[in-house]
């Protein structure tokens, strides 16, 4: 059996690459900030990873293009990230949570 570790940075890289061709949304550049982030002075992050007992949970902060069907877009992102992480890392993905941090006009979106 091969033992290996994956850093959060490696997992974030995999997630980022899996969403490169996504139409209608992109990862938020600074991420939304929670109350805890504001009070602690931490910067918001577009990808948050939590691990527990061999399972991983991912939260993605996205910016959607105005007019996109958000429910379908969220489902597509969840499915894509789940499938890629499961196939490439072998990790047990507990959840992929999608938070739409912002909505932009067509010209402002660079997905």
Automatic annotation (TrEMBL):
Domain of life: Bacteria
Alphabetical list of InterPro entries matching this protein: Asp23 (IPR005531)
One family name in Pfam for this protein: Asp23
The family this protein is said to belong to: Belongs to the asp23 family.
Name this protein carries in UniProt: Alkaline-shock protein
Protein's organism: Oceanithermus desulfurans NBRC 100063
